[in-house]
Design brief:
Length: 149
């Protein structure tokens, strides 16, 4: 983990509000219990855009409800959820690379090496994409242990 002083320095200069993980942080970021604010995770891959899911096409996976634009999209996810679910449980990938947890918005996304990454904001995504490989290595060092607090 980051030293307290280093982490506080990051917070002072960060363009987003990150927080250290608290005990029992849910495995998937799901505001109101719905992952990716109701956006279909498969749509990022098939349509190269966030596509709003339909509550009629919902499944429960890893403690969150996931919504899909179509039955076909839902079936693709069911067949291989880890291929479509965002890395780091849908928490901000850049914050994760700093040893913190932050929420995300569906429009701040990147697919790299076949993996979906979400960020706190489009501005944070612009920082994330400057060094995706390095950020992934750092974030992987914190995930999933950061959830334990």
């Amino acid at each position: 983990m980051l030293h307290r002083r280093t982490f506080l320095g990051l917070l002072a200069t960060a363009p987003f509000v990150a927080r250290p993980a608290l005990a029992a942080t849910p495995e998937v970021f799901a505001g109101g219990g719905v992952a990716i604010n109701g956006v279909d995770p498969v749509g990022y891959f098939t349509d190269s855009a966030p596509v709003l899911g339909n509550p009629a096409h919902t499944i429960l996976w890893r403690g969150a409800r996931w919504q899909f634009a179509s039955p076909e999209s839902m079936m693709a996810f069911e067949m291989n959820p880890t291929a479509y679910a965002p890395e780091y449980g849908g928490y901000c990938a850049y914050a994760m690379s700093k040893g913190a947890i932050a929420t995300t918005v569906p429009e701040a996304w990147t697919i790299n090496q076949g993996r979906l990454y979400l960020n706190y904001s489009v501005n944070v995504r612009s920082i994330w994409i400057k060094d995706i490989p390095g950020n992934v290595v750092r974030a992987n060092g914190f995930w999933p242990d950061i959830l334990a607090g």
